[in-house]
Amino acid sequence: MLPEDQKLLRLLSQDCRLNPEELSIQTGLSVEYISAKIKQWEKEKIIAKYGLLVNWQKLEEDRVTAFIDIKVTSQRGHGYDKIAQRFQKFPEIKSVFLMSGDHDLCLVIEGRNMYEIAEFVSEKLSPLEVIENTSTRFILKRYKEDGVEFEGKEERPQRLMMTP
């Protein structure tokens, strides 16, 4: 990938609201080139989704996110791909990752509460014949996500000491 294309993608990933005219000013590339590149990247799934990051904690919404680490029995000739594709079909599962370490896959699941996630694990996930074991961890508080800080102390300006 060309360095100017990398810069363009980096800018879009930081703020996908930038239009081709604004991107042209920042990159020096033509509006036509940028528009064509964005269309091409969308078609090739290089740009997979445009998104919005909401700090649900501020709204006090009932929402729980869990990471479910799974040890699976891989299927001969398919490895983990076929199993991961099966997990992708569940609307409750937001992300599926192949992992290194003690577990093979990590699923990210969102629900209204811990009981809803527990029900999903016990009724839909655990009965699958490829599952050897699961380990569920819940997010208790988000401090930073996708490079955005949600929590942090605002630093007060230091007072300068006055001397006569």
UniProtKB/TrEMBL annotation:
One of its GO terms (molecular function) is sequence-specific DNA binding. SUPFAM superfamilies: Dimeric alpha+beta barrel, Winged helix' DNA-binding domain. It holds the Pfam family AsnC_trans_reg. Transmembrane segments: none annotated. GO terms for biological process: response to amino acid. Residues 71-142 form the Transcription regulator AsnC/Lrp ligand binding domain. SMART domains: HTH_ASNC. Gene3D superfamilies: 3.30.70.920, Winged helix-like DNA-binding domain superfamily/Winged helix DNA-binding domain. InterPro entries: Dimeric_a/b-barrel (IPR011008), Tscrpt_reg_AsnC-like (IPR019888), Tscrpt_reg_AsnC/Lrp_C (IPR019887), WH-like_DNA-bd_sf (IPR036388), WH_DNA-bd_sf (IPR036390). It comes from the Bacteria. One of its GO terms (cellular component) is cytosol. This is Transcriptional regulator, AsnC family. It comes from Syntrophobotulus glycolicus (strain DSM 8271 / FlGlyR).
